[in-house]
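Budget justification, computational time. The allocation requested in the original proposal was used primarily to generate structure tokens for proteins on the priority list. As evidence of use, we reproduce two of the resulting records. The first is shown immediately below.
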Amino acid sequence: MQMLFSMEARNDFSPECKDSFLAYYPPENQKAYVNGVYDAFADHIEEVDALIEQYAEHWHKDRIAKVDLAVLRLAIAEMVFLAEPTPEGVAINEAVDLAKKFGSEESGRFVNGVLGKAARSRAEEK
């Protein structure tokens, strides 16, 4: 989440920006996960953002708080685009916890609402 937040702040989603982040953070045992999430997000950035805007009704991504956007991008990438997707319930719970920790007072509810709508919609499509 912190890497996606940093990239959004810099408007730089390049592999070089990812590598710069990985040089300082996270611990070695998490780098494979971070690389996987980055690849899932970077390969599908337009689709991730389109899904966020679809499920965050009346919210364009430019109006969403940057922390909330980073959390939503992480969760959507994990749920939809990872080679081995994270179970939706797990991704949503982790995203809500991140939003509560790093976001505003309303972030947890907002993230939960958007991701819950995404999960319900995806379940209906199956």
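The second record produced under the same allocation is shown here.
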Amino acid sequence: MLQVDGLSGGYGNEPIVRNVSFHVDKGEVLGILGPNGSGKSTLLKIISGILPKQSGTVTIDGKSAATYTQKQFARKVAVLPQLHAHAFSHTVKDTVALGRYPHQSGIFSSWSEQDEQAVQDAMGYTGISRYEDTPIELLSGGEQQRVFVAQALAQEAPILLLDEPTNHLDIAHQQQLLDTIRNQAHQKDITVVSVFHDINLAALYCDRLLLLKQGEVANVGSPQDVVLEQEIRTVYEARVKTQPHPEMPKPQMTLLPDVRGETKWFSVTKEDITILADHVVLHAQQPLKTISSAVHNAGMGWYRTFINRGVRDDYDIDDVQKENTDYLLSHGYHLTDTVAMMTAVRPEHVEVEEYESEHGSIVIAVTAGIGNAVDVSKAWHREEFPYIGTINTWVFINGFLSEEAFVQAMITATEAKTKALQDEEVVDPESGTIATGTSTDSLLIASTQQGTSFPYAGPITQLGKLIGRGVYECTVRAIHSYRQAKGGV
């Protein structure tokens, strides 16, 4: 639908945009990214004819854009510029209706049912119908922005050029507007080219991205192929980290500010763990980067307070999450700052130890109730039953872990726990075979993200050796403690 080949141009003799080439198909949304001054808006203006090109071609439906009359071009291309001037006062509806100008014919143009429907639909899509009789100058900047997007949609052109369409909009209206634009593109085969400042929004809503650097194409492709850490760092000269979106196969970017000197040095020690009447708690001096399978705040995050709560063997609550949340609140713990897990083992039976090497230190804490032991290879024979987790393992690491090291630390700790169960001959009562864990064990890996860097945590790495030894020894001791409490079971 839109083909750009070798396009160069700008405001003077020296081109701002140089030798840019790309294409956009029907129903596709292309996002243009780049730092300030990279030529994003200039490129859009050259394509739309607002600025002259010095070289290259713009082809629309197989014909050069230069061969279209102004009105013919407007029937093909709708443009939302970055800035809008209001020389005259118009109502919202009248402003949106200006988008129908390319479809009017003759000296005395008549307003058709199709024109009216297009305007009403556009106002409905952008959520501005209730303002239709309001003078546009009385609206906020964000509301005005939606009016001009509606004007572009009312034009019903097969190509839509947008320069920062979410400018001035709050996050709810950003979402509504971009959902509308994307749906219009996919449902009506509209070709959309949009400039974005927000890389994350562009990655979420665009089918492909074009990244500009100093007026030239640095990269073009799917969001996964463009929003790359090294690519963004090079083009924007900023430290970033990319990660997948939690619900979509799209990359998202996080800025990494320079906080050197702002974070005080600290470490986690054995003495930081306190054993109370009904739970074990560790409160760190600063938040730790954490991954866990806890009851409260499972997954990855940054937390300061860690709870291992002992409950009765007959604990049976319909809404465990709510009951546990009420428990944390009643004890004065901050919900967004706390990771909490539960065990059938009394807190006094926790086994805590600190392990050191020349590369760093770790703290291990384990409670090991084995009454509901399970051999994972035989578990498919069992009926589902809501056991509470009984083997809970904490691993606190004084060091800096990579993402890979966090996952490897979990594997190493699990292998060490399983080996302890094997050596202690813990049996699955259903199958009579050696158990590998319990039905709902919980594991937590937390790191200070300071000091020695640990890219890996497999069993033969320095960190892995500490984790393997520590989890194994503490699990064995915790099993002994549990058995003694149960009368030598």
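A brief technical remark on that second record: The chain has a mean pLDDT of 91.
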